[in-house]
Amino acid sequence: MAATVSEHLLDWYDAHARDLPWRARPGQPAPDPYRVWLSEVMLQQTTVAAVKPYFESFTQRWPSVDALASAPEEDVMAAWAGLGYYSRARNLVKCARTVSALGGFPDTEAELRKLPGLGDYTAAAVAAIAFGRRAVVVDANVERVVARLFAIGEPLPGARKTIRSRAEEITPGTRAGDFAQAMMDLGATICTARDPKCLRCPLSSACEARRNGDPARLPVKAPKKTRPVRQGRAYWVERDGAVWLVRREGEGMLGGMRALPDDGWSARGDGVAEHSGELLGMVRHGFTHFEIELAIHAVDIPLGDGEWWPLDRLDEAGLPTLFAKAARLALAK
DNA sequence: CATCCGTGGCG
DNA sequence: TCGCCAAGGAT
């Protein structure tokens, strides 16, 4: 019966696969491992719609892993600005340089897993999609589909072991890459979190949750904590058509990204001393585990270690969204 | 195992 | 309007 699930799903995929820029077109040879890897990293916790324009610009600017490996890190960080989870961009550069030095991507799941930024999911996905390996690819889509297919009521994250074992059982020996992408397409378009479209699902007849009557209930998740609201200040220092920008250090919040000087609200210990100046306005922004209310103050003297950035090229600075909002506010005054 | 780490869209 | 959610990884 396990074979039946993958066969139904692959048939459905052959007819309904989404046409995505990182996928090989029908008739083309296997997809370029560089493009598979790049897309998989960009897609970590990020929607297809958000990734598309970044994937296009990255592959145009850096067509190969060697090209990316040769790029200055700050150029890559700036190009990543707005996509979020900036440790991905830091690891992207590290990984590209490692792979370039190796002469290419390793072609096994175990070797891929050793590269920076590739965890269990991405190593399995690249091994299966780019190299045709049989690998068990488990992301949030697969977790949802499998939890419903087998009516696994145990809440996440405790259910992960059970889900992985069920996913292993239905993963076919060949076309594991297509199978993985089919599961993700199914999860993204049919077996969605809020409103599963069971009437169009190729697996509906095998689905235990549907038989039980309430597939949308699964998978069960632990309740989330409410996000606290932090307050902070950022400083707008403008002189001769330029603004003073710093580059945030380290691996923490927005690490490696250009930014306005701030008072250390993100608790990284490298904020500048509190200054007062005209209050230009407030910016509110939500992060994963807290919200920030940022007061934007105009100040006359440059603060901290930074550089003057021409205002007419500010969009090229690569400011993360919080500071892009702050800049928009300041420039509108 | 829990926490940290962005962002934008959707119901 | 707002909580939830997305092709997770590192520590």
Structural summary, described in words:
Adenine glycosylase active on G-A mispairs. MutY also corrects error-prone DNA synthesis past GO lesions which are due to the oxidatively damaged form of guanine: 7,8-dihydro-8-oxoguanine (8-oxo-dGTP). Its EC number is 3.2.2.31. It catalyses: Hydrolyzes free adenine bases from 7,8-dihydro-8-oxoguanine:adenine mismatched double-stranded DNA, leaving an apurinic site. It is a single chain. The chain is an alpha+beta fold and 333 residues long. 41% of the residues lie in helices and 12% in strands. The strands form 2 sheets. Strands 2, 3, 4 and 7 form a 4-stranded antiparallel β-sheet that branches. A 3-stranded mixed β-sheet has the order 1-6-5, with helices on one face. A hairpin with a 4-residue loop joins strand 5 (278-286) and strand 6 (291-298). The longest helix is centred in the first third of the chain and has 16 residues, at 87-102. It binds a DNA duplex (11 and 11 nucleotides) through helix 2, helix 3, helix 6, helix 8 and helix 9.
CATH class of the largest domain: Mainly Alpha
Structural class: alpha+beta
Total strands: 7
How many discrete structural domains? 2
CATH architecture assignment name of the largest domain? Orthogonal Bundle
Order of helices and strands: HHHHHHHHHHHHEEEEEEEH
Distance between the termini: 66 Å
Give the amount of beta strand, in percent. 5-15%
Shape: globular
Q: Assign the CATH topology of the largest domain.
A: Endonuclease III, domain 1
Question: Can you say what the CATH homologous superfamily of the largest domain is?
Answer: Hypothetical protein, domain 2
Outline the low-pLDDT stretches.
none
Q: Given the structure, what is the number of helices?
A: 13
Catalytic activity: Hydrolyzes free adenine bases from 7,8-dihydro-8-oxoguanine:adenine mismatched double-stranded DNA, leaving an apurinic site
Protein name: Adenine DNA glycosylase
Pfam families: HHH, HhH-GPD, NUDIX_4
Family: Belongs to the Nth/MutY family.
